[in-house]
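Ticket #460: bound-state structure for pyridoxal-5'-phosphate.
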Amino acid sequence: MTLRNIPSVESLLQAAEEPIRACGRPLVTQALRESLEEIRADVRAGGAVPSNQQILSLALSRLAGWTRPSLEPVINATGVIIHTNLGRAPLSNAAIAAMTAVSAGYSTLEFDLQTGKRGSRLVHAESLLQQLTGAEAAVVVNNNAAAVLLALSALAKGKRAIIARSQMVEIGGSFRVPDVMKQSGAKLVEIGSTNKVHLSDYEEALSASVSIRESVKESAFRAVVIRAHRSNFRIVGFTEEPSLKEICGLAHAHNAIVIDDLGSGTFFNVEKYGLAHEPTIQESLDAGADVVTFSGDKLLGGPQAGIIIGRKDLLDKIKKHPLARAVRADKTCLAGISATLLHYLKDEAEAEIPIWRMISQTPESLKARAEHWQRETGQGEVVPAESTVGGGSLPGENLPTCVLSLDVPKPNQFLKKLRGQSPAIIARTEDDRVLFDPRTVLPEEEGIFLATLKGLLDSG
Ligand SMILES: *Cc1c(COP(=O)(O)O)cnc(C)c1O
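RESOLUTION: The complex was predicted; output attached.
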């Protein structure tokens, strides 16, 4: 029996000063115990007793599994700019600094420096949004799904909420516009067909006779029209939809309001980058939408947030609704969104916000970067390919790019190896080749990206 040759936990702990400093004695003890348990079973089955060094490294890899965070940075070489699975928009330096500043210590989150009394967290991004859009009022919440749910709950509960069947979209992560509408307590009124909705469909729904109960309510408006942006698909062919302006005109004439869920929303016209038109926030307001909702971390390029802007009387209702508290934004979000909005106000968004830098990279500079990668790694070829914006904006729209294309024996296995690096590199395959798109690799990541890739390629 060699079981007695197995060292004790105590004796092993003496050689583990370093890990104890890093992780604490209880966790190291537990890792050693479990490793020894395994070794004992192995020895009983006829195995040899490993050296103390081997036992220690077994315990250390167990320890690493426990303490390694599951949420960690990765390098996005996929070319999908707003990659929802990879955390959407990388933040500007100013946004990061603002978020760090308010999270490291105390802040004026709900404190008025003038009066020394309690303030409101709702003021922080509001004036920036008013300046940028001309909207009467604004509120920032946890995300756009929450923005839509809150706006509908506060404004459409018990009322008819009219939506075109062609806009009853599912965004992903089981967020379906019609389900959210029902959840809010609105009475869903579907109009039109999957591919077409006419102004007369809106007219019919808006002038439908209302029950006596509904008509005696003293509320200022009788119904809500929802327009939801088709963020992640396109309808092509035999299609029709009235303009938002026409819908708003009709709704207002029938004493109804319009909520426009833009999904991504953008302050810029993206056509100058060769992309299809993405409705801008300004256009929705100009068309007469009473309330507009959009995300903070899609084309806005900020942290996760949902933004609601529009008429003051309606925003007042929204801010007072009990759900507003449940979905409110935290201080880091408010700081990050404000810093991001300020870039737009100062007309420096294209230079400062990473997603706009990525979108506006020229084909020549992308080619130059891909060629630099090829020279550095000494492998692959530089070929034209396409990047996408992603993140529920501009479905089916691509941006021309140049990628480093590697011909490796087993592309999927290679992708897995890339994911196993530290930091993990996320790439994509096309026609059995592994592609690396410079568009989404941040300039400050390029050094570690190339070193990691070279290391992996050199190791064979
Ligand atoms: C993305 C999207 C949402 C949800 O926004 P989140 O910020 O992800 O919660 C809602 N509506 C539309 C149309 C969207 O595109």
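RESOLUTION NOTES: The domain at 91-352 is CATH 3.40.640.10 (Aspartate Aminotransferase; domain 2).
TICKET STATUS: resolved
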